[in-house]
## 1
Amino acid sequence: MDYTKVWLNYRPIEGAQGKKHCVCTRESGAVIDNIYAELDTAFAAMYGEKPARGLTDGAVKIDLFLDKTMGKESYRIEKSDRTIDIASGGQEGLLYGVFELLRRMQTGTLEGNVRLEKKPSNPLRMANHWDNMEGTIERGYSGMSFFFENNEVIVNERTRDYARMMASVGINASVINNVNVRTTAPWLLTERYRAPLIEMAKIFAGYGIRLFLSLNFASPVRVGGLDTADPCDEKVIAWWKETCRDLFENVPNFGGFLVKADSEGEFGPFAYGRTHADGANMLADAVRPYGGIIVWRCFVYNCQQDWRDNVTDRACQSYINFIGLDGQFADNVILQIKNGPVDFQVREPVHPLFGGLKHTNMMLEVQVAQEYTGQQRHVCYLLPEFREILDFKTCNGEKYDTVKDLISGKNYGYKNCGIAAVVNTGNDANWTGHDLAAANLYGFGRIAFEDTLTPEQIAREWIALTYGTDEQVMENIEKILMMSWPAYEKYNAPLAIGWMVNPSYHFGPNVDGYEYDRWGTYHRISHSAIGRDRSSRGTGYAQQYPEPLASMYNEIDTCPEELLLFFHRVRFDHVMKSGETLLQHIYDTHFEGAEDVEKMAALWDALEGKIEPEAFARVKERLAFQVEHSKEWRDRINTYMYRMTEIPDAKGRKIYE
Amino acid sequence: MDYTKVWLNYRPIEGAQGKKHCVCTRESGAVIDNIYAELDTAFAAMYGEKPARGLTDGAVKIDLFLDKTMGKESYRIEKSDRTIDIASGGQEGLLYGVFELLRRMQTGTLEGNVRLEKKPSNPLRMANHWDNMEGTIERGYSGMSFFFENNEVIVNERTRDYARMMASVGINASVINNVNVRTTAPWLLTERYRAPLIEMAKIFAGYGIRLFLSLNFASPVRVGGLDTADPCDEKVIAWWKETCRDLFENVPNFGGFLVKADSEGEFGPFAYGRTHADGANMLADAVRPYGGIIVWRCFVYNCQQDWRDNVTDRACQSYINFIGLDGQFADNVILQIKNGPVDFQVREPVHPLFGGLKHTNMMLEVQVAQEYTGQQRHVCYLLPEFREILDFKTCNGEKYDTVKDLISGKNYGYKNCGIAAVVNTGNDANWTGHDLAAANLYGFGRIAFEDTLTPEQIAREWIALTYGTDEQVMENIEKILMMSWPAYEKYNAPLAIGWMVNPSYHFGPNVDGYEYDRWGTYHRISHSAIGRDRSSRGTGYAQQYPEPLASMYNEIDTCPEELLLFFHRVRFDHVMKSGETLLQHIYDTHFEGAEDVEKMAALWDALEGKIEPEAFARVKERLAFQVEHSKEWRDRINTYMYRMTEIPDAKGRKIYE
């Protein structure tokens, strides 16, 4: 198979060729084998020599050992002149320690004596793959699935490289199939797919990754042949217990299930008058004997709204559906909450459930797959967004009240919790469609493991690993990455109003694309104003936040400007903090956004000769597309606003009529 | 097979049961066999007795004979007390005469002594089926194809009933495959599909129908294995000659080809720097020895326009592409011209080529398939539209200058010319999806044969044949039909601006659906005005018409109001002839249109018990849908206009914000 090595692209270290290392450990097993293999690959490339096994004269000794005082995934690295000790409470921690060691060696950040100790911030660091059994990927922009093809499970060399890549950034759980569990996917639970799943789970286990599946809540009917899937029915309970026993006893290191229920047409407990808690807890009972976990998604709303209904507000619904259930979920259930209340727009307020739930395990769900952020044809480095989300103060009255405090369990005692991302991989040769999109996958893993890293730190790590440490390369690509989310936000739908996108496939501008549809996402632009009022005078969404957030969001004057049109209906002549009108602000940002992309393309072009030619050309081509497409965004949004208002750009730039 | 008999739904004639008839003729052959079969079916149902063959005492004698002074498709019926003579110059004319006889018997319009003579107005009366080899139908709203399935040609009992149905209204040519000739369709020319095509052509011939195929201009490459399809290349010419010889010599009554070239991605002579005339004439040479005809479509335009380009005008392009070729086409080439310059919108001006071309055979192309007119889920009886088109005075300076005079050949000597319709059949049990849509198919055939019939006459014929002659049934359904096109026009895109429809599938309202797309169909609505200027001050489209039309269309004050927004950009505060503003006119017509549909539904409901229950229920269900969907049209258009202008309805009706 021919595919790139992404950030595991080990390359010679200048001045260190022939440097000898040896590896010493009393541990053994699949994880240790993988550590050896990684060290072999890396050192052969970096130093021209694989490390010796066992103590060797004249070689730097890498000593791997367990320290039972530490967590299984934590590690400590102590480097002196001739020795590098890596200690952990478990083999997984040793693996993570080795990856950090290699990262530091490769990027030149292991100079002198070093002592560092790391404990993963989040207990669960999970990849959600929306891969379908036929081989397609829902919201996939990097080719087809490498997990499934023609309704079969694929296990091959790429499975191993996938696991290795994910482990290298600390991912410890993967849900391999789409949350919409259709066609043959419900049968993943059964004997039919058992053999390859066991094989895959073994590979995953060797990299510290637990295999999870998405399940279909109707499985007792669809797969089990029962006449009901009522979570309170004895037959149904027995069926799930037996199905889970069979799975957990046979599939090594199996983790549990991700569930999308009563959402966008997926079946759920509502069909039987049961609550989400009834449904989730029944499953939790079935998986508890094996240490299994049920991850239950909170993405529940009415997707059959009439656009003429101006009362119903989709943004309110996830909170309303779950807040009353706080405290009712079993301890091995985790609610997985999207970062915002709607759906992965380029800008949304942080979901009010994070501050609302106090007695419920929570996970944050972000989207590394660029569904609404350019589909890996635009560069859009999302770590600045993730950083903001994690740092958001929910003001929920707890001692530690940021999102990262709540999902990591810092405030609630590190129970079942963590962070998940809908990821962006596919069978494209470069894994992520756009080469630069790999920074998002890398960064997601890194920030999930160390939730205090900055986007800049992560960017520089990733650039150095992927392209080497040439300072211009580092600087230009860091600039491109750091400019990209703000630029995308500028030329996208303004000020968090979102959804000005082509329906269904969500690519390209379309101001009215969802405006008269059933999805509850309306901008309601008229000649003089734009937006929906979600204050206490409108749909009341702002009141789902604790004070002082509720009051802050409730008023145009105190609402953060970047969220202005999420919370308020605002006149086009409203004066922004900049002194410009709202309309002029929209024009300005759209011109700026497209200009920023031209700058990004120029920054890339300046690296010609410093980047491997094929990799250079791939990114150049996508940036050229982005230059044109960002203009299309600019022009369509600006023209729409101009036609609506008939007020020209104050700076006289070209707006098409 | 289980499908309805549509208008061939013969039923007992009150007070005439047991009435005896006999048929006498010296003619024989397939057409005569079909005449016998039709008389048997009809008389058994109407009189309870099949006609005797040969002179029979006490029976009304139906005498069928040839009169070589008449045209082959003309007929004369002379009815006296005991004798009905039907004479024609050909067996096809006898068949048409018999269908007219039966129609009159069934509808009670053959009282007393009758003498009538009919000559078809148009030499060619052609059905265009956009059926694909896989069995789908492009713009088909009545199920799947009954000509093709899984890349095979289907010939069965329904093929015969299809031919019979078409012959009963005078259709004499059918193009059975889509003008977009893709997948396996180019191979229809070849041996691969020869056997079933011969079988089908024989059935067609028995009903006076010539079989035509759509061809792919790239066939010499795609099918013939040549390295070019250049119409001036000797190899290509030879290939077409041989292919046509093979087809015409083996497929009985084969008519020729319909060609979509250099249009919407279909291949054509432009690829080799040749003209449409080069392409068409080369094919015409190849089919001439067999009396074959080449029908060449004029639907040629740039479908890759940038919405920001406000100079290019799709409406101008068909005329520009063909007017310079007038006189250059062979005499067995016919240019097939859509009724309007764009694409089958509910209202368009008549295509300027009709008045422009003076030395070229022309056919009018209309669309019976309701692509933009409700897709057979809305009732939209199109004969009033066809009537207007046929009667349109082109002012081209000829003695007979209406569209019907030009396409029938009345002005140019009845050469190769006529009328074609993209038809609305499929394998649904009722043939046309909506039972009432059969009136459009029926009416197309009837008006093509007799181009002076009124929509009301045709409606009453069709109703009587389909549902019987109960006066309330006749009256209510006639009202529904006659209200339906005006109603649809009212709640559709206003005043011929068109295109406020969902992209691709063309169903349901979407004001901006095509606004920023590549198809050249822009309304350019802004706060104060709507429409594109196609006058001499704008794109100049109005100047494609002869005077006085050019001047009439050129000015807002003289432009017919129903075409106002096709030709002009008009301020919303423009005062219409009614005294209302343009904006208020839009509001009014949209409220009226939806109200009209409620009236139509009530008219149908009043017929409960008078219509066969299943047929009643089918139409009732579709009308109930139309009631709701016309409100969706009303509300989306009105809301869009309201948001744009912020001027409320003067009559205080509900417009959603």
## 2
Amino acid sequence: MEFIMRPIGEIHSPFTDKKQTPIQPTRSQAVGQVVVYPEFVEGLQDVEGFSHIILLYAFHQSEGYALRVKPFLDDQLRGLFATHHPCRPNPIGLSTVRLLARRDNVLEIEGVDVLDGTPLLDIKPYVPDFDVRIDTLTGWYGARSKA
Amino acid sequence: MEFIMRPIGEIHSPFTDKKQTPIQPTRSQAVGQVVVYPEFVEGLQDVEGFSHIILLYAFHQSEGYALRVKPFLDDQLRGLFATHHPCRPNPIGLSTVRLLARRDNVLEIEGVDVLDGTPLLDIKPYVPDFDVRIDTLTGWYGARSKA
């Protein structure tokens, strides 16, 4: 079984080098743009009512993967699925960003943490009723050696 | 440009009919299992330290899409990307669930909201530092006519 995904747009950011790219969006104040291809623009209606959106995208510069990786924030090997490492069997990235403005097919966003030119796969609205969990445990992340 | 995604496992749930499936995981107490294929089991190390995980999966029973849809929780047409509707250009679903236990390649989960047999594409740890946003606006969802 396989699923073929095709970009619906591109994410633009100040980051052109993997090494400069922030680790996660809450650590980034960087402003960027989501440019949705014109044929999908009708699907953006009502998006402007949301302060935050979830971007799903392809880690297009990742190649291959290992099932145990050393996270940026730790110095021990961890299981890949306990990390947000970009090299994954299905290289799908997920970032929640602040939506600053929409102009037609362009979304101005804050908190971008992806490489410039990243292929966009999907946009979902961020709804705390669905997306926020309290009373959480965060395993190695909570106990990590590097802050 | 296209990206080929292949399942890394399957999600099992009590839901065998699209019409019975809950709308979103915070509305579901249902227990299910994530069965990761044996070749990926090493990547599950350290996952058991997290109380919540994010599942990315394929909406395998969705066919085609419309750019304006009527959400389950509303009675007006909304832009597809302002909704979590399952029929999307790239039919990737996202659910945050509670991780109850791990036994080898099987994760026992609570709050499952997908059809039984849903193909799993990725697992990411839920980390409030990355995934929680406060001070949010939720557009049509906040102002919806059906609660």
